[in-house]
Amino acid sequence: MMHMTFYWSYKVTLLIDSWKTNSWTSYVLTLLACLLASSFYQYLENRRIRIKLFSSPTPQIQIPLLQSNIAGDKAKLGLKFAGAILFGVNSAIGYLLMLAIMSFNGGVFIAVVLGLTIGYFFFRSEGEDVSLVVDNSCACS
């Protein structure tokens, strides 16, 4: 039976029927996987934002070595395509994290939120400017 309220147990089914934890070891490994996946989500979001900045018509970051390579239309199209691919992959990871949280296991919830926090600290909090606004349609950002 699926839980509809938060519960605290080492027995959890996550995302698919074959991913079940029946021991503390498998539960801790599952929580570690959730933490790493949510930190990786923040890393990919940082990469996507940087690609979007580099492919914008007027780059806001002055990097001499990269500006000469971005000048061509093909390079801009390639960066735009790479940004779209990263957006799709990142959206998929974000929705999988949301579904993991919907297992209603308290440990999974804490692991995902902690992973997002750690990922934000290491990958996304480096010198952000308040005027820089990048659209994001995912709720897990």
UniProtKB/TrEMBL annotation:
Domain of life, per lineage: Eukaryota
Record-level GO cellular component terms: plasma membrane
InterPro entries: Cop_transporter
Alphabetic keyword roster: Copper, Copper transport, Ion transport, Membrane, Transmembrane, Transmembrane helix, Transport
GO molecular function terms attached to this record: copper ion transmembrane transporter activity
Transmembrane segments: 24-44, 77-98, 104-123
Cellular localisation: Membrane
Principal location: membrane
Membrane topology qualifier: Multi-pass membrane protein
A family per Pfam: Ctr
Family designation: Belongs to the copper transporter (Ctr) (TC 1.A.56) family. SLC31A subfamily.
UniProt-recorded name of the protein: Copper transport protein
Organism: Senna tora
